[in-house]
Amino acid sequence: MKNLARNQAGFMVPVLAAATLMAVLMGSRSSMGLFIGPINTATALGAATVSFAFALSQLAWGAAQPVVGVLARRHGTTRVIVAGGLLSATGLAMVTAAGSGATLIAALLLAGAAGAAAGGAPLLLGAVAQRVAAERRGLALGLVSAGSSAGQLLLAPLAALLVAGIGWQGAMLAFAALSIAVLPMARAFRHPPAAAEAAGGQAAVDARAALREPSYWCVTAGFFVCGFHVSFLTTHMPGVLELCGFSTGFSGLWLALVGACNVVGSLASGWLMQRVSMKTLLGALYALRAAGVALFLLLPASGETMLGFALWMGLTYMATLPPTTGIIAKLYGAQNVAVLFGITMALHQVGSFLGVWLGGLELELTGGYRWVWLLDILLAAAAAALAHLPVREGRQGAPTLPPQPALAGAAAR
Description:
Number of strands: 0
CATH class: Mainly Alpha
Helix content: over 70%
Order of helices and strands: HHHHHHHHHHHHHHHHH
Number of helices: 17
Structural class: mainly alpha
Number of domains: 1
């Protein structure tokens, strides 16, 4: 009985720590769309410029992910999280003093790149994947992903209230302080897992071999579409709602409802990925997104339609995170998740950049978002139909390619 309790505690400590960190860091990022309008009003920089700055922040977040994975392997996950959290909070504080496009971009680039270290999904999910048994990995990854969704549920309405009550600058500073407050949770990862120590140089060999596999790039292509879709929604949906005559408070409610449904979707995805093919699950999720956007465009812009759209999208869009991570861990080993999923996340953030930037660009040129919505449908349909069909799921935890002698020698040196 004591051993069972100890095993359960050992399972939950890193899971809860990662879920809390993702709740605050990812929840804060998911609420940034509420700041675009107030920043534009205060600075008069224009919707395209402000959206471009936030899009570059998404790009910086993604570009930093593979580097963060390497740094965590060399210096430890805890140190990387703490350093990233402090720098991310500094970037958010700098946003409040930005008076030009260049200073706004610089501040958001710092917040984005550093945030990848403090609360990036590849780092945290990789750390958890190494610390739980393969048969419990789906549940663990679903719980961590649900933490990110819970953060959106809590922080989106909080951001709306703070912006209305103390102004956007005070709200941004409050988010910076909150980012620092959760950094002690990083202590859960101060000791490297035994599996990671045993993997040693072999991990680098397997990771490099994965980059030559079509399966890896098919999964990554699907996650690129995920980035376009999610970041366009979280950044520009407040603007869509404003164009339809809804208030900032309703936008906060919309984002909160998405976050609540994300919790359910993430947990359900973690449960399903241990019972059905993960590539089939991913294909179904992308198909549901495409159908949801198409219905949204066809139905009248009523409050019921908006809340129904939040329900539909919330159940699907964060649900892709557990099976995407799970496929990479299954094919190439849990010790490679931080680096390989970091590269996947980098491409995800390229999609995020395009979703955020193109949304702002179309708004400034046409006053709406119709063409970006249509592009979103096409990309989601392509991800459902093409990106995951060639994926070949291998044995649990077994890399699909053997180490190459030349790379093995390089790793040994």
